[in-house]
Structures are given as structure tokens and as C-alpha cells.
UniProtKB/TrEMBL annotation, chains A, B, C:
Residues 11-114 form the Rieske domain. The keyword Ubl conjugation does not apply. This is Vanillate monooxygenase. Keywords: 2Fe-2S, Iron, Iron-sulfur, Metal-binding, Monooxygenase, Oxidoreductase. InterPro entries: Cholesterol_7-desaturase, Rieske_2Fe-2S, Rieske_2Fe-2S_sf, VanA_C_cat. Pfam families: Rieske, VanA_C.
Length: 355, 355, 355
């Protein structure tokens, strides 16, 4: 059964850095409405997206920013970037309790991460996806809203055999579904690894067009899933017969693509599907960037259509529908187990009242 | 109160034969999602429309047929026409439990009937509507989806006095609502008969245009309802003063129209409204066919609009809204009683788990 | 917390008089579906909008009026203006219990008021808004459906500080939000008074355009709320320095606008927002009428947008969301208290079964 509870006390991607600016952005994460904006000196801040007075959303017009403060569009309650209310209409005194919950924020690897939970994040930090903002890589990215529980996207990404059927013509070839996987779980670190190495495979258009390879390829898919939010797919393609990576990691005969997904639960039945594709070749070729952006977006939209369909199916079937798992699901099942453990730990902790 | 439970262990019309072909057709019947298609040798088959793996609908793209097998569009699980899974990605062994529930199918009188239930149909067969595929008759037909519980359509069809008000200008005239009915119920066979014989009535456009009669008519409406699914209206019209049918049934002075409805519950609040009109005159006149098709479709759409409205009304009123029944409702009340008995018998039987 | 129960045994505005005519009008008030029409001699009548037979709405086509009677569009059940059924298809006898609940109606001040409740209204009468149909005033009016609980509109109208933020550019200026209010509650009569007198304020376009005043103004907002339905805003604007009203009430140096709202709960989450603007100047100036109609409608639609947003927010937050009230909310809180008392009294009375 798919996990439906949420893992709290965790970092989640709320937005790309470029989405957060001098206009308010509203995102709902783990069911919590969150307001994001950037102060005049460039700092991203996050706070509850509901005015304390009558709960009008601070992200919606006519609410607006004035300097570093946000002014509610209904009655003018005004808040600083720390969520503290600094002005109330028709009176001098601002009630002491007039403050919005404020969320810890870390900007890293092009993402704006927020900490959702009741505990302090302490010195924990979000996991890394350094390629997205590193020299030597060029990245295209986007976000598609998904009308499906996040567990369906976790399942989807942990088992790439679906590329053959759902994404034929883009990234799927018969070899993906035919080749067995190996799965490893680092229980302590809470990381799931799934690998599929194809020695001699057809080159799908996604790689043929972007790399220029015309023949068959050696294709490696090495997945690292850091529950709950970050998914990394290290993809290596090289013409069949190219030498393997050197002992020191050098691998100049191959093309490398780092496909990154951030899986952020919005509500019980909806999810933000952040996707990014970083490559170490054709760095300045806009045509390749355009092609990979359009191709990956098309692939993501195929997933979105399929998962939206599945969500409707499951929502109609109640809690106890039947599934049948096979070898390809080993990684997905491990991910579900870790997510269920995380969600269980959240549920067991007393939850502070939201201000 | 209208019956809302379903009568299981019964035959239901799932589709017209011409709707089932070499592309998958998905229909939800009594809440069960069913996949229909035709094998290469022309046999109609029906099975559960959910892949055993992750419940993706086998009727939806990119799921597709390959020969007599259906391939799931998500991960490629493949099933034979008996619902047995024959292929799974990345492994040789197919789990023994990987099989879809398969439904008994009978093709008869242009309909594809499926048996919904847990018991075996044994040697029961669906009731007949032979005119729809018989020499000496020409038939037009269609299906309109109804966003209303099936009981509202049963009520509607068992009491034709509504023709005067809802279908004036097509098939209603004042005499229909004015003329009392006679009702008979064959409890053992579970059939409801409702008759209304009008000796001297205006001829509505439906019959005037199709038969060419210009004056007043003798108009007989003889209903046979075979719960739960099949409704037959034997309609006889003849110019006033024409001789009645002979003792041997011969009736060459009258025009006969066999109006057939199949009432198939889809979900609790939706129904497939199959309708067909078979006539024994103007057999090769396309203009008459077109006219009757358009007229009957218009009439059905008037019913659909009224019943969709009623469904919204009733859904908003909870379980205990009040009704007031009068003489014209005798047939409808008998039908409700039989359907309630059938539904009660279904509920009393232990239900096998859906595979 | 906002009141969500309904105050029954009260008068509510169902429609403007000009909306009720020789075609049926259906309105749902306090969850009760009501049919309104005018008899041939011009009397407005109100009765349950559900045929006693199968509950088809009498306000919806093909239901129709014949003389003073309404004929159900499904089977032709026919009712007089008192709700008593006078004809049934295919039989002479009309069942004694075939009668629709009939609602007391009062037409007054351009409104059609109906009494919703189980007790008799006795000699109670709806509260007055005489300017809407009095010589010496010109009125523009409209009604906007609101997809929000009525309490949100009560809150909105009792605290006009929101004009500054939500209606800037129409009727809001900084002084509205800055100026404290005075609130009085006549507990016995059940009336809430909220006043805000601005001695020296900017003149918003709503008044500048309609009165021709170019400089700053003295602006008085005197609210009278007669729960549950009638809200009066006595608005007085005059150039700064104009003399105050005379002891006898004469006030010829000022412009007076009587803004009237009728707040009629439709369902738990929807409301009819009737609005009217009566003025004692430029009585025959169509340009001023057009301007005030368009301006006030724009203002109401800004409220509708904000309150529809709030309804979605609150509907998603369950029963126990938090609010923080300040001085400007004194009137609104008093209104909520009176409405809660009224709703509690309704709930405590035994409710007669709806016919």
C-alpha cells in the first residue's frame, strides 16, 4: 500500500530560487500554506500564508509587498520578514500574539528548501544536488503540478522500467524494461540505490539528439533517492565499446546527465514535481538545451497524465486496493518502507499548534 | 424511496457489439471497471480494467492490444483474453496470482451482455430483444451517459405519462397523461407489465413523420420490464378505425415500433442509457431512419437533462426525502420492489474478493 | 469563530420585486428551495420548489405557469398559488396531502421578503429600507451570488476598514482604516450600530465623480445592522468646513447616500449578496446612476472575490481555525453574537417536517 502520511521534520524544496522574488509566491507544502518572497537585500523568507486576523492569504492580491514587509490585502495587517505583525488598522497597539509561523529556509543548488516540522532543524542541512548550479554543467529545469499523492511519483521514479512503455519515443527502449536492476538500501543514512546497467542498448532520441551518438550505447542508470524529497538519477551513456570510467573517476569517453527530481507533497492528493536535467556536454549549445528542456518536460507530462489517472483510480478504490509487486519494485518498496517509518515518527511526536 | 443498491449476479448490457472491437473499451458497471475488446477471431472478451501491478487502467493509452493480448501502458504487464498475465518486465517468472477477473460474455440481439456477480451464471441467459437484429425490422440506436442513479431511469420508463410534459412535440400528446394504465407483475418471473391503450389519440410527430399517418390514431403502449436491465416497449399505432390484430397475431393494418432500453448502472450516481428503436415499416427508407434516430435521441436527451437535475436534487436531500405516489406509479413501484429484492439477495450473499 | 448555523423564523430578502414576474424564479434560502412567481393580478407568491410527486423543480423548464398555476414539467402535477395541488395525471382524485409548503411574503422597499421558519410570523414585519422606493431618492441596485458562508459577508460589511485595502481606487482612502470606530449594540432590539466619522479625508472616486466635490471631505459612515438580513450604511459626505446637520435633521450642505445590503444565506457555503445605492442628489442624472451602478458593482465583485477565496481557505481548515480580533472587529463580533443567539433559538425549537 502506498504511503499517504507525511514525513515532517524534514527539508522540502518549496521553489526554485528564480521563482522567489519581489512578488509573493504561495505554495502549500505538507498541507501548510506558505508564503515565500525575497527581501530587498535578496534573502528568501518563508512564513504562514494566512493573515492572523481573518486568514486572508498573504500571497493573493490585493495583498502586496512594501519594502521587506507584506501587507494583507483585506484589512492591511502588516508583517515583517520574520512573520511578526508590525501594524494593525485603526489602532497603535499590535497584539503580542500577532505573528505568523516562520519557516527555516536554505537556498542551495538552485532550490529554496524549507523545513517543515515542529522540531528545530538544528544543524541538519538539505541533501545536495550540486550539478544544478556548478561550473562544468548546463541545466534545464521546470516544475509540473501533479494531482496525485506523492507516493505515486516516488513509485514512478524508483522503477524506470516504465520508460519503455510510458516514454517510448523519448527515453524508453526495450532494453530498459528487459534489464534487471540491483537495489541497495542504506538503512542508517536512509538512502535507496537502484541501478540498471545496459551494456548494449538502443539509443533513445533523448540521448541521440543531444549527444550526437548514432549507434548503440552502453547506458547506465544509477539512482540515489534521499527520502523524502530528493531523487538523483546519474545517467551515463557512451557508444558501445567505449572504455569504462578510470579508477580515478575520469570518464571522458562518456556523456553524463544528472537528472534531479524534488518530490514535494502539497496536499494528500497533490504534489509539486520539480525536475532538472544537468549535462556535462554541449554546455553552450542552446539547441541542445531547448531540446532537452522540451523532451524532459514532455516525459514529465506523460508521468503527470498517468499518475493523475492512477490517483483518480485509487481515490475511488478506498484504502484496501490490491497490488502485486515484482522484482522491479524492490527499490520502490524500500522507499515506501523508509517513508512510512519517517511518517510514523512524525505522527508519534506531539505537534505544536500552528500559530 | 428509490433503490440505490445494485442487483448482482445478473446479466447487464455493457456495450453494443459494434462498440467492441480491436481497440480497448472501458466501461464501469455496478462500480466495477471492465475492459472490453474483441480478439482477432472476433470474440468479445471482458476482464477487470486494472493492471494487477499498480492498477493502471488497461483501457487507457498508452495501454494497447498486441494480437489477442492487452499490454499495460505503464510497465508492460501483458494479459491474455482470459485475463491471465503472460509477461512481466525484467523477469521470466510470472507470479501465479497475476490474473485479472474475467467476466462471462454473451453477444445477443446486437448487445454485449456481461455477467456481474460472484456466482456462476450457470445456464442462465440474458433476456431477449430479438427485433434489434432480426429480418423484417430496421433499427436505430445509441447510448447516452446519465449522471443519475439508475432507479430514476427505471421510474421514468415505467411511467410514460411524462411523455406529455417532458416530450411534447416529439412523442407526447395529451392522451398519454390522461389515459389510465393497467399494471401486471409476474412475481415469479420477475417481470413488470404496464399497458396504456388509447383508442383515439392525436398522432405525435414521432409517428406522423415516420408512418405518414395524417389523422388520429389508435395507440398502444405495452411495456415489459425485465429487471434489472432490459426494458421493452411494444408500440402499436394505427389509423383510428383500423381492424385490431387478428387472432393469430397478424396485424398488417398497424405500424409496430419496438423501443428497447438497456438500463445499466455504472456507479451509484451514473447510468448507461442504451436505447434502440426497431420498426417493421419503411425498412429501407434512410430518411425515416435518420428521423427516428434524431427524434429518439432528442427524447432521450430530454430525459437525461431531467434526470440529471433530479439526481442533483436528491443527492442534496439525503436519504429521507418525501415522495407522493399515485396510480401512474404502480408499475414503477413494482419495479422498485423487485429491484430491492434482487439487491437485498445480492447483499446477503458473501462476496468474493475481487482479484 | 464565524456563525454557520441559520437563524430561522426570520424574514429574508428572496428577490427584488422586479425579478419576480410571470416566469418562475427559483431561489434556495437557508437551504430551502423556493419557487417565486407573480399571479396574474400581480401578487408575489412563494412555495416549495419541489413537486410532491418525484421532487422535480417547479422553477425549471419544462415546468411552466398556466394562469395562476404552476405545472410540473415532468408529469404535469399542477399547483395553485397557495401550493395546493389541483391536478394529477390520469386520475380525478387529487390526494389530500398533495400540497407544497407555502411561504409568507411581504413586498416592501423594492424587496420581496419571505418568512423562513416553522412558527407563524404573526404581526412581525421585515425591517425597512425606505429610500429604495421613496421620492427624493434615486436608486441603483443588483445582486451578486457569493460562494461563501453568509457570516463572511456580515464580517465584511460590519468592518469597513477593508475599504482602504480591498476597494482602493473606488471607495477606500487611508483615512477609513486609520479612523477608529464607535460601536453600540441594542441588545433588546437586536441592532448593531457602528460609526466612523472622518473630519478631514480624501474624497474617493465613488463620491468625487458622483457629487462633483473636488477637495477634501467630511465623511461619515453610520452603519445599522438588523440581523440577520438587513444592513444599512448611512453615508454622508460634505466638503470640509460645511455646516453640520441642523437640529431638526436638515442637512442641505451634504450629500447623502444610503447603501443597503440584504444578506440572504442560500446554503451553508453560499449567499445572495443584494446591494442597493440610493442617493439624494443628481436624481435624474443617468450618467451618475450608471457610474454608481458600475462602481458599486465593481466593489461588490471585489468583496465576492475576496470572500470566495476566504471560503475556500476556511472550508479547508475545518472547524477550529484561529482568528485574532482587534478593535475594528467590535461590530462584527457583536453581530456574530446576535446571529449565534438567533441560530441557537432556532435550533432549540422543534422543527416541523417539510411537506
Amino acid at each position: 500500500m502506498i504511503v499517504t502520511g507525511f514525513a515532517r521534520d524534514q527539508w522540502y524544496v518549496a521553489a526554485y530560487g528564480h521563482e522567489v522574488g519581489r512578488r509573493q509566491l504561495g505554495r502549500t507544502i505538507l498541507g501548510e500554506p506558505i508564503l515565500l518572497y525575497r527581501t530587498e537585500d535578496g534573502r528568501a523568507v518563508a512564513m504562514a500564508d494566512r493573515c492572523v486576523h481573518r486568514r486572508f492569504p498573504l500571497s493573493e492580491a490585493p495583498s502586496h509587498l512594501v519594502g521587506d514587509q507584506v501587507v494583507c490585502g483585506y484589512h492591511g495587517f502588516t508583517y515583517g520578514p520574520d512573520g511578526v505583525c508590525v501594524a494593525v488598522p485603526a489602532q497603535r497597539r499590535v497584539p503580542r500574539t500577532a505573528r505568523l509561523r516562520s519557516y527555516p529556509v536554505v537556498e542551495q543548488d538552485s532550490f529554496v528548501w524549507v523545513w517543515i516540522g515542529d522540531r528545530d532543524p538544528g544543524d541538519t542541512t538539505p541533501p545536495r544536488a550540486p550539478w544544478l548550479a556548478a561550473p562544468g554543467y548546463t541545466t534545464v529545469c521546470g516544475m509540473e503540478p501533479l494531482n496525485a499523492r506523492y507516493g505515486l511519483l516516488v513509485d514512478n521514479l524508483l522503477d524506470l522500467s516504465h520508460e519503455t512503455y510510458l516514454h517510448g519515443g523519448y527515453i524508453g527502449t526495450p532494453e530498459v524494461a528487459e534489464t534487471p536492476i540491483t537495489t541497495e538500501v542504506h538503512e542508517e543514512a536512509g538512502v535507496v540505490y537502484v541501478s540498471r546497467h545496459m551494456d548494449d542498448a538502443a539509443c533513445p532520441p533523448f540521448y541521440a539528439e543531444s549527444t550526437g551518438i548514432r549507434g548503440r550505447i552502453t547506458r547506465w542508470q544509477d539512482i540515489e533517492y534521499h527520502p523524502p524529497c530528493l531523487y538523483l538519477l546519474h545517467s551515463r551513456v557512451a557508444p558501445v565499446g567505449s572504455p569504462p570510467p578510470a579508477a580515478d573517476g575520469a570518464d571522458r569517453h562518456a556523456f553524463h546527465v544528472e537528472v534531479v527530481y524534488a518530490i514535494t507533497p502539497s496536499t494528500e492528493g497533490s504534489t509539486y514535481d520539480f525536475w532538472a536535467v544537468a549535462r556535462d556536454f554541449a554546455l553552450d549549445d542552446e539547441r541542445v538545451s531547448d531540446f532537452l528542456r522540451e523532451s524532459n518536460r514532455a516525459v514529465v507530462l506523460q508521468d503527470v497524465a498517468a499518475l493523475n489517472t492512477l490517483e483518480k483510480v485509487l481515490a475511488g478504490e478506498g484504502e484496501h486496493y490490491q497490488e502485486l509487486s515484482v522484482n522491479i519494485d524492490t527499490g520502490g518498496l524500500a522507499a515506501r518502507r523508509i517513508l512510512a517509518r519517517m511518517a510514523g515518527e512524525s505522527a508519534a511526536r506531539p505537534r505544536s499548534a500552528a500559530p
